[in-house]
Specification:
This protein has 356 residues and is α/β, with parallel strands linked by helices. The chain contains 13 helices and 13 strands. The strands form two sheets. A seven-stranded parallel β-sheet has the order 3-2-1-4-5-6-7, with helices on both faces. It has a six-stranded parallel β-sheet with strand order 10-9-8-11-12-13, with helices on both faces. The two termini are 21 Å apart. 36% of the residues are buried.
Length: 356
């Protein structure tokens, strides 16, 4: 029986601490455990990740040659990329190409010619793809709305969410109180973290907030400026990047996770919070209600007093419903990497066997 050679584009391993980097790590780990007499996987990875996933898979190193002259590189029977912005392509236009679109956030972030350019570039990739997958029904609806996909099959396959719990970690030095709230993500305007400043000011003084993530942006600097101007230095902390151990401790010990984001293809922090049995307070934007369902408390808008009242009411509800913690954990388990990987393998085989 012929073994099909499948290339998995994991170029985002170059930044393993962001969302796509974590997707690349978890998908790579799952696929590397697969023993299938029909498939050989090759991972396209940065040089430092050669061998990272063991010897059951092959490796190709990302290179300018693959980026600029793909027809001079190795060929495969199928090519899969985990995100729509990869610069790497198969050697031949005839190679079945499967692409995941994680979000169209740029539509809300870009304007004018930059927005048109991104759409045009993505349309070229969509035209080339045999099948497009989306990580939420919301993202799929955005694809159908803004791209020409009348004859293109779009499948929704949610991402898995992996939560590693460390049991021997110490309280991070930047945590100033026991009654702290937590959120994490790149600190840019799309995450809408700025609304949390006045929200915290409206809460009782015992509450503090940790906003973790890359803060190398004007938006983050503006938040820090607001914190100082409003005298909240001891109550709102932006520690920047945090370690996996610190992240685990914060999820396990926070009172709740707050997630006011406006643009999410799926959004991992709410599910990570639920996996730890923590209540989630989130916006009703983009894919968030789809992913969290009835298991989050929602802000319909961001007026500070309303946000604070919704939070305090939600916390009372959570405390009075002891079964809620287990319900949150069970809801989060549907976002399981093993199930996600099985769906992708089934999809690859459909394409290879001409069933799509």
């Amino acid at each position: 029986m012929k073994k099909y050679r499948i290339l998995i584009d994991l170029d985002r391993l170059k930044d393993p601490y962001n969302g796509l980097g974590q997707v690349a790590i978890n998908l790579g780990e799952q696929l590397s455990r697969i023993e299938d007499d029909q498939i050989d996987f090759t991972f396209l990875v940065p040089g430092s990740f050669i061998g990272k996933f063991g010897d059951k898979v092959r490796y190709e190193k990302v290179s300018l040659k693959r980026r600029l002259f793909p027809w001079l590189c190795a060929s495969y029977d199928l090519w899969y990329t985990i995100h729509q912005d990869s610069w790497y392509f198969p050697s031949s236009a005839r190679t079945p190409y499967v692409m995941t679109i994680n979000d169209l956030n740029f539509l809300g972030e870009k304007k004018g010619i930059n927005r048109k350019y991104r759409l045009k570039r993505l349309q070229v990739k969509v035209n080339h793809a045999k099948i497009v997958t989306a990580i939420s029904s919301f993202t799929a609806s955005e694809i159908r709305k803004y791209l020409k996909v009348e004859k293109k099959e779009i499948r929704v396959i949610y991402c898995g969410v992996e939560v590693t719990k460390y049991t021997d970690t110490k309280k991070p030095a930047f945590v100033t109180s026991d009654d702290f709230l937590f959120t994490i993500g790149v600190i840019q305007s799309k995450k809408n973290f700025a609304v949390l400043v006045d929200f915290i000011k409206k809460l009782p003084d015992n509450y503090s907030l940790v906003i973790a993530g890359n803060k190398n942006s004007d938006y983050a600097r503006d938040i820090e400026k607001q914190i100082i101007e409003k005298g909240l230095q001891g109550r709102i902390i932006l520690p920047g990047f945090i370690s996996d151990e610190e992240k685990s401790w914060l999820y396990q010990h926070c009172k709740a996770v707050v997630f006011p984001s406006r643009f999410e293809g799926m959004g991992f922090p709410p599910i990570e919070a639920m996996r730890n049995g923590k209540p989630v307070f989130a916006s009703t934007y983009s894919s968030i209600p789809e992913v969290c369902g009835e298991y989050a408390y929602y802000w319909q808008h961001f007026e500070p007093s309303y946000m604070a009242d919704t939070f305090l009411e939600g916390m009372r509800d959570f405390v009075n419903r002891p079964e809620r913690e287990e319900q949150l954990k069970q809801h989060s388990m549907q976002y399981d990497w093993e199930q996600v990987t099985d769906r992708y393998i089934s999809l690859f085989k459909e394409v290879l066997n001409g069933k799509t």
